[in-house]
Amino acid sequence: MKKGISQRKVQRMRNLATKNYGAKTTIQSGYNKKSSKKSEGDVWEEKGKTWTIKNGIKQSITKLDSARTHMRMPTHCPKCNTRMRNSAHKFMYVRFKHCLHCQTKFEFKLEDDGKYNDWKNDRLNNNFSKWLNTIEGEFDEFMKSRKSQKQITESGHIEDWSGGQTDEQIIEQFNKFIETEKQKLKKHLGE
To answer: What is the pLDDT of residues 25-38, one digit of tens each?
Structure first.
């Protein structure tokens, strides 16, 4: 039984003696991954995802990136540079993109110019019309789903919901509700 030193170990010793520490001692064949150097701002697709490099960090690009940047609240007001620590500042920033102090100044200026009531009424009308469009859309969805008389619960049981009010009665009640809400808005606006 003769134990000898393998050719690989001899080559390794030669590499160490010549200070060629990273040299290979064996020849291998197989898969070599092609790598390309990415720099700041590059965008590429890998394994079905889109990637980029921001601030030296590899990040994936998603559908919600624009929403994330839109909803991010800064630490200071973009107009007056006031620190926005209070929740009231966040409330104002989400709606008007500035702090409570800036909004207060804006409303006082409108009050001095005599335009505050017009501005307030305009905002109330816009909010009401958006709410009304949403409610009417949801009501239409409800009426379409009402055509199906049977509902399947989460546990898989089939429930029969036939009977009750007719479609005409439900539509009449909905229209009365909308009219009362319109009357409340007119009363609030002082018309």
So the answer is: 877 777 777 777 88
Q: CA geometry: angle at 104 spanning 98 and 106, to 5°?
A: 75
pTM confidence score? 0.55
Three-state SS for 134?
helix
H or E element in which residue 124 lies: helix 116-146
For residue 53, give the 3-state DSSP assignment. strand
Give every strand in the sheet of 57-61, ordered side by side.
Answer: 43-46, 49-54, 57-61
d(CA 138, CA 9) in angstroms, rounded, equals 77
Look up residue 177 and give its amino acid.
Answer: F
Q: At 7, which amino acid appears?
A: Q
CA distances from 124 to 69, 119, 177 (A): 27, 9, 18
Out of 7-16, 95-104, 154-163, least confident range: 154-163
Who contacts 133 (Cβ-Cβ below 8 Å, separation ≥6)? none
**How far apart, in whole angstroms, are the C-alpha atoms of residue 98 and residue 2?**
85
Domain map of the chain by residue range? 71-114, 129-150+163-191
